[in-house]
Design brief:
With 173 residues, the protein is of the alpha+beta class. The protein has helices at 20-27, 42-60, 107-121, 137-146; strands spanning 3-6, 10-14, 64-69, 75-86, 89-98, 127-132, 149-156, 163-172. The protein is globular, with a radius of gyration of 15 Å. The chain binds coenzyme A (COA). Residues 32, 35, 95-98, 103-109, 132, 136, 138-139, 141-142 line the site of coenzyme A (COA).
């Protein structure tokens, strides 16, 4: 399975079809998805990774990747780069989703820093961001450790049209 990068404790590699069952645990769990619109069914999780991993690898050379414990070889979640709209346009966003058993150990921060460095060194990107909702404090703490500065912007929710705040964490080289 093609390796993207490594850290002290983790391997970051491309996601393969056989990983979707493990990753599906995260996306179908109400606590893991508490800051998202809702949980995802098996087919919704597959569609998510078809777009943000498999298609994205082919189209862009990046996407969501598997985060693997280097010692046990167990997949603990995903982290990687997707294209997201911000007030600055379509931006390269680092996102992360871990199975809850692996929270509180610094794995998401370690993986996201590795993705930021990969983006700068291997993809030659000049700017990467992470976007969080104001109430997702764990995600904000990760983003704070990964990026240099923060801006707040407002986004209109599709459907209801309500304006909500988004925290935009930015790294530039
Ligand atoms: C967002 C998410 C990945 C954050 O997970 P996390 O475990 O809080 O983040 P990390 O893996 O970086 O761990 C950081 C925590 O581990 C602690 N820690 C323990 N050992 C550590 C180490 N060696 N290095 C760094 N931190 C360590 C830190 O103190 C911190 O704890 P704190 O938040 O109580 O201060 C997780 O909550 C998640 O998967 N949520 C669901 C998906 C989601 O919302 N994603 C974000 C979308 S915007």
């Amino acid at each position: 399975m093609p390796l993207i990068t490594t850290t002290e404790r983790l391997l970051i590699r491309k996601i393969v079809d056989a990983d979707l069952a493990s990753l599906g645990r995260i996306y179908s769990h109400a606590v893991c998805m508490q800051y998202y619109a809702g949980i995802k069914s098996h087919s919704e999780t597959r569609a998510w990774f078809e777009e943000l991993a498999f298609d994205s690898y082919n189209r862009h050379g990046f996407g969501l990747w598997a985060v693997v414990d280097a010692t046990s070889n167990e997949i603990i979640g995903d982290c990687g780069i997707t294209l997201q709209q911000t007030p600055a346009g379509l931006e390269h966003e680092i996102g992360y989703h871990l199975w809850r058993e692996f929270w509180g150990q610094g794995f998401a921060t370690e993986a996201a820093i590795a993705c930021r460095d990969y983006a700068f060194q291997n993809l030659d990107l000049r700017r990467v961001v992470s976007i969080t909702s104001p109430d997702n404090i764990p995600s904000q703490k990760v983003a704070q450790s990964v990026h240099d500065r923060k801006e707040i912007y407002q986004k209109r929710v599709r459907g209801s049209g309500t304006l909500v705040d988004r925290h935009l964490y930015i790294s530039e080289r």
